[in-house]
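---------- Forwarded message ----------

FYI, see the CotS family spore coat protein record below. Original note from H. follows.
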Amino acid sequence: MEEYRIGPWDHLEGTVDPGIVLEQYVPPELEAIAWKVAELYEMKVSDMTLVTSKPDKGGAIWKMNTDRGPRSIKVLHREPKRSLFSVGSQEYLVNQGARVPSLIRTKDDRLYVEAGGKLWIVTEWIESLVQASKIDLEGAAQLCTGLGEFHKLSQGYVPPFGAARSTRLPRWPKYYEKIIAKIGWFRDIAQAYPELSASSRLLSIVDDYDRQAREIYEKFKLSSYPRMAAMGDPHWGLAHQDYGWSNGQMGPGGIWIIDLDGVAYDLPIRDLRKLITSTMDDMGVWDLTWIRGMIEAYHQANPIDRETFELLWLDMAFPNEFYKHVKEIVYQPTLFMETELNGILDRVLIAESTKWQALAELEQDKANYVPGHYPEQEAAVLLPVERTERVLEGQELPMPELLPPAAMVEPVTTQPNIIPISPMEPVAVLPLIETGQPARRIAASRPRRTAKDKSQRRNAKALPPQRNTKTRPARQDVKVLPLARDTKAQPAAQDAKALPVAQDAKAQPAAKRRRKPASSQKRSAAKKSVLKKQAAKKRSVQKSASLLKPAVRVTPPKRRTKPDRSKQALKLAPKQKQKTSQTKKPAGVFNPNKNRAGKTTRVRKPAAANNRKAARR
């Protein structure tokens, strides 16, 4: 059986009982997973009650009564890596002393459980939480104070390993551009349904909101936002992104903040702006006293500087509330324009009548805040991109205009001043040492030995090898090269004594005679001993054979006479056919012209004999 994968269940609206509200309903498979997850904790659950659910996203939260007291169990509807970012932030805030529900660890000491493709957490349930008062400024101020404390304690948060980094800090320009583009969509939809009564009314005001959005965006691009965003995510900390009267409630010690699964890095005043503008929208009027009181309460908990106040003012001036209420027109244009649009426009226009007067006075408060320190950063330039007023199928999008090329810097053509260097005294230089292979001696060519020399060498008596009593210097692998040019080459060492030579041996002069090395002498002596043994063995074999066989006269082969090749002899001699076969010799007669197999072989004359013959001719 496949594991149940948690997902949205808003498509079940027509299949459940008519009296069931989807926000108070979860599929049975999801509730079964909740009970299995609860078994992984050190607690005994007596009952479990669904508090609320998000059928369009796939999230839910239950209250459990356990033997350890009331607790909550919640399934986070985002991807596990994104949810891990939120779980890590909640644990970090608890350790920092923030008033957020603490996480309960599992039996194996983990902060969460992954089941059904989502992350599950169990937290303590705070019974005494109540909403702050919405009818007076005191309740709103308490809510802003709790928000400022939350933002200050979240600074420095670093997500755990494996978590997806969630940040909206660099996305402010994209947010404004998206709203400007969708306000143009509102105009296109109203023009596409001219028969509806709300269409003409929307067309009469949409141009004003489009102009407001573009003007505020141009001022935003001139603000200190790029330098502030360059400070980095941990510097600013986390923003709740969904802070309001339901997620910030009064409890022990002050405001407790719940529902942290959507936190992300951001400029903290984005939460404050959402709280102020939503409160003014609920009141139907922009009350400057309330606005100043809420900002001051936040400032006491988390001080803001002049640059932050300027961004807060620009964000409040942007038509956020108009976009938030009218954006549903994109999904069901006809139904929305017939049933809801007229009432929404009445509400928005009433609040708009007091908005700009309050903002004009509030802008004067910027001087009450000290400037912040944000060093200049080499941030990317925000390029102006021309967007189409309406998007139609098959229409080409215009290419954005390119910025003019940067001014070319002319190269420097002047020659730099060269400082002459004064001559210095010669410094003694150490001799250069080569560490390569030792130089090899080239043997001097010796004259070719003649036949007379060879015979004299054979007749000479063998001399016993004698050692050189003078110690020869060790062979060095390092050769020192002298640098001085006038140094004369040292003569070769001449103190080596000539080896004594026997008197009866006709030795060559010492200057021309070259003594064989000891290794060569040893090889020659060994070779001679082997030849002597072979000759003695051969003689013994022949002697034994002669004793066994009768005496046979060995006739040496006839010597070939030199033919007379003169012209006269050739004329007188008759033509005779030469016999190729040789006269057979009796068996047992030694024939040196035959090999062991009995075949006649031709004896080649040495090359020296041929040379002498040619010389005589």
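H. also flagged this: The two ends are 115 Å apart (CA to CA).
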